[in-house]
């Protein structure tokens, strides 16, 4: 999932055409999937959330956080950053990160220049992408990352500290179970 450029490992960032599915699609074996999303209310109050699941669709952790007033793309970048930080803290080496923000993905896949207004956040994400994890970043339609969307909306009242959700969050339990049941139906039956 990485390439070597100028003697450094460079993560591959690309759009996975399969991510157009409305259903959650598991990553390849041995890889965990991180879904992240942002929520910005009409008054500009921003929050983000996400979930980390293994290649069998099992919940590892989730997160939610209130961020104060931020533009949408900045909130998406923070969500990506928190998701990658969580993977790093759990020592998860193979990561497929899915975001519904093509704009944020484009920002971290290109050289935005030091004058970009979100330069610091972009660089924080890029640093994590080059920090020893094998990361693949994909665009995903919102319907396929609905649990992350629900967690992002649930982040508004939680305050400025990142809240890690160790069990399936009650706010997204129904959607998580729908995705998990759909995943089980699409797997080949055991021999």
What's the structural domain tally? 1
- Estimate the mean pLDDT confidence: 86
Strand line-up of the largest beta sheet: 1-2-7-6-3-4-5-8
CATH topology group: Nucleotidyltransferase, domain 5
Q: Into which percent range does the helicity of residues fall? A: 25-40%
Alpha-carbon distance between the termini? 31 Å
| Main sheet makeup | 8 strands, mixed
What is the architecture at the second tier of CATH? Answer: 2-Layer Sandwich
- Helix count? 5
- According to CATH, what is the class? Alpha Beta
Number of strands: 8
Find the CATH superfamily. Ribonuclease H-like superfamily/Ribonuclease H
Helix and strand run: EEEEEHEHHEHEH
**Alpha-beta classification:** alpha/beta
**Principal-axis shape:** globular
Query: What is the CA-atom radius of gyration, in angstroms?
Result: 16 Å
**Residue fraction in strands:** 25-35%
Uncertain segments of ≥5 residues (pLDDT<50)? none
Give a verbal description of the structure.
With 191 residues, this protein is α/β, with parallel strands linked by helices. The protein has one domain: 2-Layer Sandwich (Nucleotidyltransferase, domain 5). Helices cover 31% and strands 28% of the residues. The protein is built from 5 helices and 8 strands, in the order βββββαβααβαβα. Strands 1-2-7-6-3-4-5-8 form an 8-stranded mixed beta sheet, sandwiched between helices. The relative contact order is 0.22.
